[in-house]
Amino acid sequence: MDADDTAALRQELTLVEQDLAQLRQLAAELRRRVGERADDPTDPNEKATLITEAEEQEAFIDVLEQRREDLLRRLGEHA
């Protein structure tokens, strides 16, 4: 792997890690809103929607974590 390939992989890895941080924060916020009484969803449908949104974010987090692991392997930084 040449220096350009390594630089491109590192740049993509940085972007993936930034996306992961943002998605984790969003999923945590959605979960917090479901459990918090002061900002309680108004009905069961709204609560279910928030839970579904959090689960979708968490599924995307799993995909990004796999991508990060692939990038690390390609960079030779992970077994």
Written description of the protein model:
With 79 residues, the chain is mostly helical. The chain has one domain (3-74). Helix content is 81%, strand content 0%. It is built from two helices and no strands. The chain has helices at 3-35, 44-74. Helix 1 runs antiparallel to helix 2. The mean pLDDT is 88.
**Poorly predicted regions:** none
Structural class: mainly alpha
Count of DSSP helices? Answer: 2
Q: What overall geometry do the principal axes of the alpha carbons give?
A: rod-shaped
Mean pLDDT over the residues: 88
| Percent helix | over 70%
Main pleated-sheet profile: none
Distance between the first and last residues' Cα: 17 Å
The run of helices and strands is HH
Which descriptors would you attach to this protein?
rod-shaped; 79 residues; 2 helices; mainly alpha; 81% helix
Give a nutshell description of this structure.
With 79 residues, the protein is mainly alpha-helical. It contains 2 helices and no strands. The mean pLDDT is 88.
